[in-house]
Design a protein that fits this description.
There is one protein chain. Strands 8-1-10-19-18-17-16-15-14-11-12-13 form a twelve-stranded mixed sheet, sandwiched between helices. Helices cover 39% and strands 16% of the residues.
Length: 499
């Protein structure tokens, strides 16, 4: 997994927003070339920290300001006594403005500058200064070949601002991108560094604000917030006279024949996440196993829809869909749940039935789709969702007027009013069955303890991903129920129970 530092700032920007911020800084009196020099110094510091004994770098330069950063990095390395070469994929005459000035400075410092050819030898740390945040679409010659050369060497790679070939807004990679070991990003963090395909290409991420005026930065609109620090919701402490009736009664509805474990996982998760009471409405054949596994969950055999309205009336929050299936039993239970005025969390087959138009979503709901379910809800392809995950999350929130958790690497939490949060925690060991059921139960429990839909989804996603990241360090074989004790401890660390 790429190393994501907890000290990164929360705001995430589109490429256009960063350009606007850059223009604000220049208009306020900081010359563009000075910002470029600061960026080069920041990248050079990060490179020396990561590879202090490398002694050599090869800078691959394009034709824009990203190349200008690369030329200045080369000059700094040369002055420090390192072996330096700059290999260009475009004519230096194409450079303009600050980038042309940077080229002149590298040339004056005595840096070796030549065209990248088939016979060029790449050595030392490779500095990717090919394409900046303005890149979009598919790679074209000569950049595609240059990126293939970089990735084929096996040498360490530093990406300047963003790995070339990675879309700064969406994290999409069409075909290929530079696979960086270290990315040093400037002025404002780009949203595309955290979602989509980005985790496979960014490597360790370091940020430098280039001494930007905090007041100017605060005035710049952003696209999303990272789930960290002040952006992370908190539960209120519990008084010493607290009782179970104060912390929500969560009803989990699901578990058709053969899928009883999914509903039980959601119920256990809700219980372990602090819900005062948890009930489970499931098939009769699952009751015995559920009671044996978790006697604290009140399990009711629900083979008839007539039983459900009473159970819903007794609950404060409904978690609907884990193991629900799509047969007649599932459809009847989902219709009964949808008629309830209770806040709800819909997952799994509840989402698939919603996509089919089998039921109308009640107000004040949270939807937790993975990309395939999101594609069905939007009537598009899985690839289209992954190509622009932020847009897909916002579109779902607007279409269904619900809070949406779009799961996956760089999970997103979107609200109908346009707010967007991103979670940069997690681990590939979480790619297994039942993890979504645990998340649904967790969000339901947080709703029952008084958090609004958006805040419950945000804190739930962070706790779930943080637990997975902590446990995933042990490698493969992580199962969903492994997360429950760790979620409980993280929740207590983040939101202490007692005043």
């Amino acid at each position: 997994m790429p190393a994501i530092h907890d000290d990164l700032p929360p705001p995430l920007y589109t490429a256009a927003q960063v350009r606007e911020l850059d223009a604000r800084l220049i208009a306020a009196g900081t010359p563009g070339f000075e910002l470029m020099q600061r960026a080069a110094h920041a990248a050079w510091r990060a490179l020396r920290r990561r590879w202090p004994d490398a002694g050599a770098i090869s800078v691959l330069a394009g034709a824009g300001n990203n190349a200008g950063d690369g030329y200045l990095i080369a000059a700094l390395a040369h002055k420090s006594g390192w072996a330096v070469q700059v290999l260009t994929v475009s004519e230096p005459g194409q450079l303009t403005g600050d980038a042309a000035q940077a080229f002149a400075e590298a040339q004056a410092a005595g840096v070796s500058i030549s065209a990248l050819g088939d016979a060029s030898e790449l050595r030392g740390v490779l500095v990717d200064a090919l394409l900046g945040t303005g890149f979009h679409g598919a790679l074209r010659a000569p950049y595609a070949a240059a990126i293939e050369r970089i990735n084929a060497t096996g040498l360490p790679v530093l990406a300047v601002d963003i790995p070339s070939g990675l879309h700064a807004d969406t994290g999409q990679v069409e075909g290929s991108a530079v696979c960086a070991d270290l990315t040093v990003s400037f002025i404002g963090l780009k949203l595309g560094l955290f979602t989509g395909d980005a985790p496979d290409w960014v490597g360790e991420l370091v940020f430098d604000d280039l001494q930007a005026d905090p007041q100017l930065v605060a005035q710049q609109p952003y696209a999303a917030l990272r789930l960290a620090g002040a952006a992370l919701p908190q539960l209120a402490p519990r008084s010493r006279t607290a009782h179970k009736g104060l912390f929500g009664h969560v009803l989990v509805i699901g578990g058709d024949r053969g899928f009883g474990g999914a509903a039980l996982l959601a119920a256990q998760s809700a219980l372990r996440s602090g819900a005062g009471l948890v009930s489970l409405a499931t098939r009769g054949e699952h009751v015995g196993a559920s009671l044996a596994r978790c006697p604290e969950v009140m399990c009711t055999a629900t083979d008839s829809t007539y039983q459900l309205p009473t159970l819903c009336d007794q609950a404060d929050v409904l978690v609907v869909g884990p193991g629900l299936g799509q047969q007649a039993w599932a459809r009847s239970l989902l219709s009964a749940a949808a008629a309830s005025p209770r806040p709800q969390v819909w997952d799994a087959d509840a989402l698939n039935l919603l996509a089919m138009g089998a039921v109308k979503l009640p107000v004040d709901s949270v939807l937790t789709p993975h990309p395939g379910e999101a594609a069905r809800l939007l009537g598009c392809s899985n690839a289209a969702v992954q190509a622009d995950r932020p847009a897909a999350a916002r579109a779902l929130a607007e279409r269904y007027q619900a809070v949406v958790v779009l799961k996956g690497a760089g999970s997103l939490v979107a609200a109908p009013d346009g707010r967007l949060l991103l979670c940069d925690r997690g681990h590939p060991a979480m790619a297994g069955a039942g993890l979504g059921d645990v998340l649904a139960g967790l969000i339901g429990a947080l709703r029952g303890q008084g958090l609004a839909a958006f805040e419950a989804a945000a804190l739930g996603v962070w706790l779930h991903a943080s637990a997975g990241q902590q446990l995933g360090a042990g490698g493969r074989g992580l199962v969903a129920s492994d997360l429950l004790p760790t979620i409980r401890q993280l929740l207590e660390d983040q939101c202490p129970c007692q005043r």
